[in-house]
Amino acid sequence: MIEAISQAVVPGYFMSDLAHAVAITDALDGISILVDTFHASANGAKAEAFFRTYRGQIGHVHSADHPGRYEPTGAIAFTPFLDALIAADYRGAVGFEYLPSRETEAGLCWLAAWKTRLQKGEPALSR
């Protein structure tokens, strides 16, 4: 599994955008892409559009808001991203790699709704 990490976050990182990750997975068998909403957004990409296009090459998803790398606070529109996961019947791992913006209990208020939507494949909550 490979992950594109934004130059804005880690200057000089070898694989800094999703297009580079796709090129590598196209060239090598058995390699999948980890899509990180934070790094995608830092590069100006929309994670949901990437997911819809390259679903067959994605093996793992990380979610964090951008900027700030916080829990889903609303800076990124996560509803279209969740819709893309549900539409593709994605059953892979969805990880949350972020810096909490507040105390733990308050910072996890979004998690139950995400879990329910992903497990049941419910339609969008709002747009």
Textual characterization of the structure:
- This protein is of the alpha/beta class and 127 residues long.
- It has a single domain, classed as TIM Barrel (Alpha-Beta Barrel), CATH 3.20.20.
- Helix content is 38%, strand content 13%.
- The chain is built from six helices and four strands.
- A four-stranded parallel beta sheet has the order 1-2-3-4.
- Strand 3 (58-63), helix 4 (78-87) and strand 4 form a beta-alpha-beta unit.
- Helix 3 (47-54) packs parallel to helix 4 (78-87).
- The termini are far apart.
- Mean pLDDT is 88; it is low at 123-127.
The CATH homologous superfamily: Divalent-metal-dependent TIM barrel enzymes
Determine the strand fraction and express it as a percent band: 5-15%
Terminal CA distance reads: 32 Å
Main sheet characteristics:
4 strands, parallel
Order of strands, widest sheet: 1-2-3-4
Helix content: 25-40%
The first-level CATH class is given as Alpha Beta
Alpha-beta classification: alpha/beta
CATH architecture descriptor text:
Alpha-Beta Barrel
Order of helices and strands: EHEHHEHEHH
CATH topology term: TIM Barrel
Approximate shape? globular
Integer average pLDDT: 88
